[in-house]
Inverse folding.
């Protein structure tokens, strides 16, 4: 710049010397190298470097020198006065000067604020202890590196992009690392639960412990950090704690200068703050209500600022679409856009054996979001189609296979399999290649899927290749092959209910995303018909660990009452074995009056139904009933409904046993447990059978010598008399046998199959063998049933009264005219 | 028809509506069901199923649809229209999220 220009040209001052500032200056000098006298203040005692590369630096994959963007020579060459390690503490807009910590005052004609953002520290006890570090600049990284000794323990709070890169980096130093994350899945803002599940698996495979759904209560230690305490009481020992819960735009300076500030410094489409002489750029700004935490947007912002400083009016910033990648070597993920829901218009591709998950979400044939895990080559392509709003209707069928596949039309499965070479892998899990399977079919004259599975193990472990294997059998047998009448659960999978639940156990799948990924679901989050079923199977398989998913349940089971045609609810308290007392009846009467309940009816199940209760009254109604000792009758539940009894030996001249007593004991033993469909019992005091025990799911008929146990009756849509399962002598045996039957049904039946359907499928003889003959099996079933009951032993009404899920019952808002119209 | 400027009414924070769930807003005219999808998109429909008036707010939300609790019609949350073979439409209203709070356009919502 000439002497003359040095004195006269306008002065540009830049606060902050990070990536946005650096990029903005480059854009400026490209346009007008000499327009301004430029002064830059950077709080960090160094030149501008590539902040996103701090992760590789922490992981020892790169050195600081390698990530410098602008070295000293660059600033000299451009005639930029750079003040390193000098923090601007105030802006005087009237005088158009900035003042630094060291007291230096600098005048400006144009000011650019590029102060980035600062890490958020959660307000818990102990955040200020030595050993608690953040992950934002080189100083942080250096602190971490010299504390990171092999064998020492680090806890990273926050399972987002930053936290996971920190965890991987520290692991590379041989530390024992745990990640504590508040949400149920990692990186939930950038990934869906399926991808989050795979990510967690991949992170854990690296030897990093992951605690999801974990809320940090305090950081422990006196002199320095010793551990992290979660609000469930668990304590994770630690010598270092990394705070990576998020960032906040660094807008303090601007706020104190009286500029409009929201979460960030608010700017218009020209990156102008509320002061015409001051622009802002980078993570510190808020544009159209958006704050960004990635570099791509600030590169676009930098262009606009530079253009404005050169007096160009054309350029305007429109906001940015961003995409996410994780810089942890060996973990490939990509996500962009909006994919939270819209199960209905999405294309999903999973390969369990290779931990691959791909999902593209469409709206009106345009890509609106994409999540890729394990194979991300096509991320950029999808992102481009998304930004360009390209109509992908034409390539919809092949879209998910990526750019390389476009043009080629997909073969129909039959032809595709026929066309495969002999050594083509059919079953990824058990490595069955095509010829192995076809020759087995020929050699052993196999005719059904089950036989092939038994002989070759193909499609036996995850069912992914079922359709392919079936195609092979069909090809071999021609029209002799009638596809076994396997009925897949729903359009989301080729697996039957029985297969799916078998695999949940054998593969120890403990969550909805785990099931859907490992079993290759064709949708991202299932559908209304498979979600409730899987929810039940998981509940039944892992009674003490699995957390019930309320939103997968029908309203009746969510609010513990039955919805009526007018939207009101009915409430049916338990009357154990059909017995009641004046005290209970009085309580019911009081509730009915107090809440103006229109209909009070004796049900076909020997108890009383209060019909027409308003939803918002439900908790109060329950509270009243609870006071009198009345609990939910589960009249809504896929679970035990009623145990009807007759008076029996106590009064009836024919009675042989205490049928009322046994009925009450049975109802108390079995109530509360979830089952595939509703379960109804009855106990009759003699073969005259006044309690209709022989049309119940399980019926007990008392005889002089003891108790006949009947199963598989029904008297609903389908009327069926029970089959006699066997005879026992004592009441204790009766209780154990009935509970064992229920548990066997819980563990084996397909969701929504009543007991009679299940028995017809599995065979009475088999059930009899397990319950009446194999005593160990029965005792084991009984034991498992008692364990599962531990998890459900609370009365759902009492829970709701106590406030659990209270929001379910009150309106979000009430908007009534002050005066009636 | 007379056009009145939008009248955005703050009905509370987003997290008060369960994901894949709904809450209702009671007005003198009608109950309005405000749905929240798994992706935190929100929609508002009159809380009456076009079939037989079932309370849509009690249905299971999947994607951008809700299954009515009474007879399982599937209603599109965006348009309020019944999907598949079923015909009929629930009235829909404008809602928006700002700074984590949900706003409902009232002038229409309380109009006849
Ligand atoms: C209240 C009651 C009628 C009554 O006033 O007596 C009743 C009411 C309903 N029954 Fe029932 N059933 C009632 C006894 C019965 C009986 C008789 C019995 O239990 O001894 C049967 C035949 C026995 C059987 O189930 O095998 C019976 C067979 C059904 C069926 C057919 C089930 C089947 O598999 O065929 C349904 C439909 C279903 O469950 O899918 C059903 C469904 C229903 C539902 C839940 C319909 C619904 O989903 O809303 C009704 C709910 C009303 C409500 O809000 O309470 N109800 N229902 C009885 C409640 C019993 C109780 O105290 O819990
Ligand atoms: C570890 C890590 C990994 C990341 N990985 C990625 C990634 O993979 N992809 C991606 O897109 N983004 C990534 N980011 C985010 C990216 O680095 C930021 O979006 C980007 O650096 C923002 O640039 P900026 O200039 O707005 O803020 P910064 O780069 O933070 O620069 C702001 C500078 O201003 C200085 N400053 C603040 N106040 C003052 C003051 N009063 N006076 C003087 N100086 C001041 C600060 O010291 C800082 O040097 C990552 C960030 C980190 C920390
Ligand atoms: S018989 Fe039909 S109408 Fe009567 S209660 Fe049972 S389900 Fe309802
Ligand atoms: S009232 Fe909604 S489906 Fe019948």
């Amino acid at each position: 710049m000439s002497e003359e220009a040095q004195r006269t040209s306008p002065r540009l001052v830049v606060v902050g010397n990070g990536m946005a500032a650096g990029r903005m200056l480059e854009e400026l000098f490209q346009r007008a190298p000499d327009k301004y006298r430029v002064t830059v203040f950077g709080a960090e005692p160094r030149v501008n470097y590539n902040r996103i590369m701090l992760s590789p630096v922490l992981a020892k994959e790169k050195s600081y020198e390698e990530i410098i963007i602008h070295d000293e020579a660059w600033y000299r060459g451009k005639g930029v006065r750079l003040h390193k390690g000098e923090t601007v503490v105030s802006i005087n807009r009237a005088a158009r000067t900035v003042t630094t910590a060291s007291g230096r005052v600098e005048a400006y004609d144009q000011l650019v604020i590029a102060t980035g953002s600062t890490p958020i520290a959660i307000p818990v006890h102990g955040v200020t202890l030595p050993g608690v570090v953040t992950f934002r600049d080189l100083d942080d990284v250096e602190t971490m590196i010299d504390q990171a000794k092999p064998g020492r323990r680090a806890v990273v709070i926050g399972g987002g992009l930053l936290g996971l890169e920190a965890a991987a980096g520290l692991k590379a130093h041989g530390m024992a690392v745990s990640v504590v994350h508040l949400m149920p899945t990692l990186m939930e803002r950038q990934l869906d639960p399926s991808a989050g599940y795979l990510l967690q698996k991949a992170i854990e495979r690296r030897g990093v412990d992951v605690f999801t759904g974990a809320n940090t209560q305090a950081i422990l230690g006196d002199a320095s950090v010793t551990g992290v305490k979660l609000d469930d009481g668990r304590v994770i020992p630690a010598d270092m704690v990394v705070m990576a819960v998020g960032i906040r735009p660094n807008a303090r300076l601007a706020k104190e200068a009286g500029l409009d500030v929201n979460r960030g410094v608010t700017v218009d489409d020209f990156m102008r703050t509320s002061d015409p002489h001051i622009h802002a750029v980078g993570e510190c700004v808020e544009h159209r209500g958006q704050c960004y935490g990635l570099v791509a947007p600030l590169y676009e912002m930098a262009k606009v600022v530079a253009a404005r400083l050169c007096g160009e009016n054309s350029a305007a910033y429109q906001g940015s679409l961003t995409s996410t990648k994780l810089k942890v070597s060996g973990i490939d993920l990509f996500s962009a856009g909006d994919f939270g829901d819209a199960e209905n218009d999405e294309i999903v591709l999973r390969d369990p054996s290779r931990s691959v998950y791909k999902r593209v979400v469409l709206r009106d044939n345009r890509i609106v979001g994409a999540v890729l895990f394990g194979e991300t080559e096509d991320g950029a392509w999808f992102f481009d189609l998304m930004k360009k709003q390209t109509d992908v209707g034409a390539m919809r069928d092949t879209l998910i296979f990526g750019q390389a596949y476009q043009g080629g039309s997909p073969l129909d499965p039959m032809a595709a399999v026929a066309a495969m070479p002999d050594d083509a892998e059919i079953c990824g899990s058990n490595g069955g290649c095509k010829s192995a399977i076809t020759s087995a079919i020929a050699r052993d004259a196999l005719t059904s899927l089950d036989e092939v599975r038994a002989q070759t193990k193909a499609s036996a472990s995850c069912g992914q290749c079922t359709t392919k294997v079936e195609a092979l059998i069909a090809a071999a047998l021609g029209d002799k092959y009638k596809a076994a009448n396997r009925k897949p659960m729903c359009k989301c999978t080729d697996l039957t209910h029985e297969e799916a639940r078998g695999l949940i156990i054998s593969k120890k799948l403990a969550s909805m995303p785990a099931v859907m990924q490992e079993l290759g679901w064709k949708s991202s989050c299932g559908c209304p018909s498979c979600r409730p079923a899987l929810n039940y199977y998981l509940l039944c398989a892992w009674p003490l660990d699995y957390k019930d998913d309320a939103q997968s349940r029908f309203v009746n089971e969510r609010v513990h009452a039955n919805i009526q045609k007018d939207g009101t609810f009915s409430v049916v308290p338990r009357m154990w074995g059909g017995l009641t007392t004046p005290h209970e009846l009085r309580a019911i009467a009081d509730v009915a009056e107090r809440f103006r309940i229109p209909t009070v009816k004796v049900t076909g199940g020997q108890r009383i139904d209060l019909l027409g209760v308003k939803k918002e009254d439900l908790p109060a109604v329950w509270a009243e009933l609870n006071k009198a000792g009345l609990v939910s009758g589960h009249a809504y539940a896929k679970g035990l409904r009623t145990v009807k009894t007759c008076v029996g030996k106590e009064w009836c001249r024919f009675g042989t046993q205490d049928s009322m007593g046994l009925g009450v004991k049975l109802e108390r033993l079995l109530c509360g447990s979830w089952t595939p469909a509703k379960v109804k019992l009855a106990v009759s005091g003699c073969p005259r059978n006044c309690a209709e025990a022989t049309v119940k799911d399980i019926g007990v008929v008392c005889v002089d010598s003891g108790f006949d146990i009947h199963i598989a009756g029904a008297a609903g849509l389908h009327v069926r008399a029970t089959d006699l399962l066997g005879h026992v002598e004592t009441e204790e045996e009766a209780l154990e046998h009935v509970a064992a039957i229920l548990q066997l049904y819980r563990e084996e039946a397909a969701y929504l199959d009543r007991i009679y359907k299940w028995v017809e499928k599995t065979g009475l003889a088999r059930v009899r063998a397990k319950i009446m003959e194999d005593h160990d099996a029965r005792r084991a079933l009984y034991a498992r049933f008692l364990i599962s009951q531990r998890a459900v032993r609370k009365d759902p009404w009492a829970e709701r009264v106590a406030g659990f899920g209270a929001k379910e019952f009150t309106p979000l808002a009430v908007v009534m005219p002050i005066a009636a119209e | 028809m007379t056009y009145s400027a939008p009248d955005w009414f703050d009905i509370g924070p987003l997290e008060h509506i369960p994901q894949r769930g709904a809450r209702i807003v009671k007005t003198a005219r009608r109950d309005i069901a405000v749905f929240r999808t798994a992706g935190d998109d929100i929609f508002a429909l009159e809380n009456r199923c076009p079939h037989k008036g079932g309370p849509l707010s009690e249905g299971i939300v999947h994607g951008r649809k809700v299954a009515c609790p009474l007879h399982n019609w599937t209603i599109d949350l965006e348009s309020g229209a019944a999907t598949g073979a079923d015909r009929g439409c629930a009235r829909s209203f404008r809602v928006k999220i700002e700074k984590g709070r949900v706003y409902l356009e009232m002038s229409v919502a309380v109009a006849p």
